[in-house]
């Protein structure tokens, strides 16, 4: 399969599509290797993962270059590699305590004692998207490996250049090589992965997530689905306008808006709307495309060409129905790549796709509201429910609003904080996902099955037959 370069439009990468037989073979090898990995114990697995982090650091330059080729952006690629390494280090520190076996305890029935235990799933599948290709391929794999599982990863076909340097780092970590495999390919390869694993972590669109959920149901395996969003921000009448505009300019435009927790809708109180909007537009207008120099500018290209059609279609639909661009409003073609102009739209309404559907671009829509209640009603009037943001200097008010929002991670007086605060557990609401929290202590426990050893301490059970 020939893969397009997001900066040049050239089909300059040959993706090796792993055959379905090969997926089955690799998964069988993983299944055979997993018991030894589990029996090694937590300390040895931590050591192996620390070695892996070191190898990623050794291969940092090649990884950053490959991720940058995949995505067309530079500073986020550096950050992505560094965050991946620090995520491994953090899990190595936290996992032993989070999975430490509790001592035996007395049951409520006094002569019985419970010894809690667990067993990891044998093979965990990971299917990941193109917006943070390296990080989202490893974010679930890391805790799964530490928990004692073997892992097979199927990255997005759109961004698989990073796989080669990642394989190098895996090969250089002998203890890991037998329990971590990467299979490249498109949807069919993803479907094959589902056939051979015991639990699945999927990150991607709602449409594919729904299909993946159905396939997992047929296989009778748990699926953890991290899907799309249309995150809303509520800017109250007492919000600090400087804080709100800086946070939302960043939260809606970073990674060219290609982030699941991108703020795509803003509901601002009428009485500060003029000041807020003009300051937001001023800040958004300062953002530059990273063209022609990938290292200069904040806004990279649209990574997937399929997304370009979605963005253009949503913009056309919005303009036809009366939306107004306060800045931006087009997708430009520069040097063969597609770049969305950093865009703020007003005069929008809920009959426009750009208000109801995920856009996944450097575009934010602003609507004026008369009250907090109206803002909450509009924010919740969505099929999605990933995260949100609230801006108010009255903290009691901010928490009250946060409690009523149908979303898992709510940032207060800032934006997209769930990407940084790993210990904050959250779940997705509505179509934005399903399954346990990817963040916090619950995250690693998604990969184990709890067991209990229940011991009779020496008293004949009163329910036994008397005869
Ligand atoms: P996508 O759904 O098109 O593809 C995701 C992955 O699924 C790819 O690896 C793809 O090859 C694979 N796939 C496609 N069809 C499949 C099938 N039938 N069976 C198994 N696998 C299949 O998503 P995308 O366009 O790559 O990524 C963008 C989406 O990801 C956005 O909606 C974004 O919001 C979402 N996302 C969510 C989070 C989160 O944490 N909630 C994080 C990042 C991205």
Protein architecture, described:
- This protein is an alpha/beta fold.
- The chain folds into two domains: 2-227 and 428-453, Aldehyde Dehydrogenase, Chain A, domain 1; 231-419, Aldehyde Dehydrogenase, Chain A, domain 2.
- Helices cover 42% and strands 20% of the residues.
- The chain has 17 helices and 20 strands.
- The strands form five sheets. The protein has a seven-stranded mixed sheet, sandwiched between helices. The chain has a six-stranded mixed sheet with strand order 7-6-5-8-9-19, with helices on both faces.
- α1 (20-40) crosses α9 (187-195), α2 packs antiparallel against α4 and α4 packs parallel to α6 (141-147).
- It is globular and about 80 Å long.
- The mean pLDDT is 97.
- The chain binds nicotinamide-adenine-dinucleotide.
Spell out the key features of this protein.
Aldehyde Dehydrogenase, Chain A, domain 1, globular, 467 residues, alpha/beta, six-stranded mixed β-sheet, Aldehyde Dehydrogenase, Chain A, domain 2, binds nicotinamide-adenine-dinucleotide
């Amino acid at each position: 399969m020939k893969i397009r370069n997001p900066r040049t439009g050239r089909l300059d990468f040959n993706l090796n599509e792993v055959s379905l037989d090969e997926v089955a073979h690799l998964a069988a090898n993983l299944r055979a290797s997993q018991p030894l990995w589990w029996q090694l114990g937590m300390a040895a697995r931590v050591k192996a993962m620390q070695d892996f982090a070191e190898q990623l650091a050794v291969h940092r330059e090649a990884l950053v270059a490959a991720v940058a080729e995949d995505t067309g952006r530079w500073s986020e690629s550096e950050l992505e590699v560094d965050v991946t390494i620090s995520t491994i280090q953090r899990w190595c520190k936290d996992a032993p305590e989070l999975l430490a076996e509790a001592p035996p305890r007395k049951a409520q029935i006094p002569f019985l004692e419970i010894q809690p235990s667990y067993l990891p799933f044998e093979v965990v599948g990971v299917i990941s998207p193109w917006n943070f290709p390296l990080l989202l391929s490893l974010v679930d794999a890391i805790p799964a490996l530490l928990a004692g599982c073997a892992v097979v990863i199927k990255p997005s076909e759109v961004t698989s250049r990073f796989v080669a340097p990642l394989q190098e780092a895996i090969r250089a970590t002998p203890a890991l090589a037998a329990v971590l495999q990467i299979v490249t390919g498109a949807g069919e390869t993803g479907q094959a992965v589902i056939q051979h694993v015991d639990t699945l972590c999927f990150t991607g669109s709602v449409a594919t997530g729904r299909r993946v959920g159905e396939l997992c149901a047929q296989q009778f395996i748990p699926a953890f689905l991290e899907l799309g969003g249309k995150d809303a921000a509520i800017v109250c009448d007492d919000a600090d306008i400087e804080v709100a505009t800086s946070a939302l300019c960043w939260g809606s435009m970073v990674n060219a808006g290609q982030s699941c927790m991108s703020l795509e809708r803003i509901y601002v109180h009428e009485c500060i709307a003029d000041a807020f909007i003009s300051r937001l537009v001023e800040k958004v207008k300062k953002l530059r495309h990273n063209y022609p120099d990938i290292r200069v500018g904040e806004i990279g290209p649209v990574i997937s060409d399929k997304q370009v059609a979605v963005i253009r279609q949503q913009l056309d639909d919005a303009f036809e129905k009366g939306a107004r661009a306060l800045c931006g409003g087009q997708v430009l073609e520069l040097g063969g790549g597609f770049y969305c102009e950093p865009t703020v739209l007003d005069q929008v309404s809920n009959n426009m796709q750009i208000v109801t559907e995920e856009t996944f671009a450097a575009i934010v829509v602003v609507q004026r509201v008369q009250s907090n209640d109206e803002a909450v009603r509009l924010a919740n009037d969505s099929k999605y429910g990933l995260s949100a943001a609230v801006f108010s200097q009255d903290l009691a008010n901010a928490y009250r609003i946060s409690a009523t929002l149908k979303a898992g991670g709510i940032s207060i007086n800032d934006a997209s904080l769930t990407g940084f605060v790993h210990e904050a557990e959250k779940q997705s609401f509505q179509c934005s996902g399903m399954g346990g929290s990817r963040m916090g202590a619950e995250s690693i426990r998604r990969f184990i099955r709890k067991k209990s050893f229940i011991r009779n301490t020496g008293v004949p059970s009163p329910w036994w037959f008397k005869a």
